[in-house]
Every structure is written in structure tokens, then in C-alpha cells.
Amino acid sequence: MPPWLLILIAVLVITLVVNPTERDFVWYRSLRRPEWIGRQPWVALVWPLIMVCFYGSAVAFWQTAGSWGWMGAYAVLLVLLRSPHWLICRLHRLTAGLPFWLLSWTLTLVLALIVRPASPLASGLLLPALLWTPVEASIALRMVGLNRKEHRSGRGPDDRRPARSRRL
Fold it and tell me: Does the pTM exceed 0.85?
């Protein structure tokens, strides 16, 4: 089996495994989002573009280095890049993805710098992930503010405390 096909299979499997289930995603779809997101048709194309570029980066670096160890690093990074979505939907907590966005952005930058001398193309193809990760984290933070419940209990969507009783 050619390496490019093994890398493609790995990318697809990781993406499917670390993807939120439909049941978990229902909660996320019910949340309010910043207005500009709904008016931008390109937003739906961001993650497919990132995945194609990520795959292209892994293949380009494989062709230069031919190291399965580095492909393992790419796999770990892909899990970290996809984990925030899964965690947010699974835990019903918008802030759950923030540490993973920070870690995945940092490791993407490190990997881009490491692979640059061997393959500038592989490094450049990691740029969409580097650019979108902070945007996505800031969108999630904005969504936290948009989805705070403004009623007498003062409880927000991420509040896990038991509700106060109204009985006297």
C-alpha cells in the first residue's frame, strides 16, 4: 500500500473518531453564534480546507523525510486539532476546547518550524490551521457571552451547579 494512501486513511479515521456524534452536536447547533458567522458562506469550507492542507503537508513531508515517526507526530497533532470540537459538544461546555486550541496551535507552530528546512511546502500547508485555530477559539469565547442565560437564576450554559429551589 503506498504511503500517501496510508496517510489518507489515518487522516480520515482520526477525523471520524474525534468527530462529535450527532446527538452531541445537536446541543452545539442550538447555541447562538456571532452574527458575522452566519453571513459568511466560506466558514463552512474552512475545516475541509484545513484537512486537505494538513494531509498535503503530511504527504509532502513524507516524500522528503520518509519517517513514520514524524507521521505519528502529525497524527497526534490532528487529534489535538480535532479534540476541541468533540470536547465542547460532549461536555456541553464552550470553554472546554480552549486548552486544546492553545496546545494544538503551539504544536502546529512547532511542527511547521521543524519541517520547514526539509520541506517548505509542508510547513506552508500548516498555515491554514495556524490561522484558523485562534479565530475559532475567539468565536467560542464570543459564543460563551452570547449564550449566557439572562434570567433570575444568573446561571449560564456552562454552569453545572444544581438549580436553586424556589420554595420558601
Answer: no
